[in-house]
């Protein structure tokens, strides 16, 4: 199996079909050689994208998909080599939770006068557990609420202001908007994967 971009930055691994995940744009556009600090223009999003609206739209589609699921469909796989629906949902939970420290760092950089909300206070289902549909729904909602808290109160100029974050010795130049929209695109990519697995038309 190949990891997707969020996996390569520390999140849970993804199935082979997720290798073209749009989250890879962060790695392609922003990853720099070790210890180099240079700003790079990211062209994957337009100037006036409403970040909160994009997150809400994609999460609404995920919720609607979960309404069509049943507990006995969580073990379904598109092929034996693919992740199950449950494993995809757990990947979404932990991938977005993994982004929160990066969002906190960027928030402190671009809006030092704003308080940083407390997030991550709940225990999420482990990636190896047979989480039920209600547990997965609760976990996905909890993580998304924390993402929204980290974006709350930021002006448009602060959302698009680039700053440095360091991961595993590599310096990334990116904005809160880039990171948040990458999370939204990553989620939508896997929503489509679940739809294919369950035979549901987008």
Q: Could you describe the 3D structure shown?
A:
- By secondary structure, the chain is mainly alpha-helical.
- It has one domain: dinb family like domain (Four Helix Bundle (Hemerythrin (Met), subunit A), Up-down Bundle).
- Helices cover 50% and strands 7% of the residues.
- The chain has 7 helices and 3 strands, in the order H-H-E-H-H-H-H-E-E-H.
- A 3-stranded antiparallel sheet has the order 1-3-2.
- Strand 2 and strand 3 form a beta hairpin.
- Helix 3 runs parallel beside helix 7, helix 4 runs parallel beside helix 5 and helix 4 packs antiparallel against helix 7.
Note the main attributes of this structure.
elongated; single chain; mainly alpha; 202 residues; Four Helix Bundle (Hemerythrin (Met), subunit A); 50% helix
Which helices and strands occur, and which strands form pairs?
Layout: H1 5-8, H2 24-30, E1 31-34, H3 51-68, H4 85-110, H5 133-151, H6 156-159, E2 163-167, E3 170-174, H7 176-198
Antiparallel strand pairs: 1-3, 2-3
Helix pairs in contact: 3-5, 3-7, 4-5, 4-7
The radius of gyration is 17 Å
- Give the CATH H-level superfamily: dinb family like domain
Q: Any idea of the CATH class?
A: Mainly Alpha
What class, by secondary structure content? mainly alpha
Shape: elongated
What summary fits the major beta sheet? 3 strands, antiparallel
Terminal CA distance reads 26 Å
Q: And the CATH topology?
A: Four Helix Bundle (Hemerythrin (Met), subunit A)
Which regions contain 5 or more consecutive residues with pLDDT less than 50?
12-48
What percent of residues adopt helix (DSSP H or I)?
Answer: 40-55%
Mean pLDDT: 79
- Quick one: how many beta strands? 3
CATH architecture name = Up-down Bundle
The sequence of SSEs as H and E is HHEHHHHEEH
Overall number of domains: 1
Give the percentage of residues in beta strands.
Answer: 5-15%
How many helices does DSSP assign?
Answer: 7
| Arrangement of strands in the largest sheet | 1-3-2
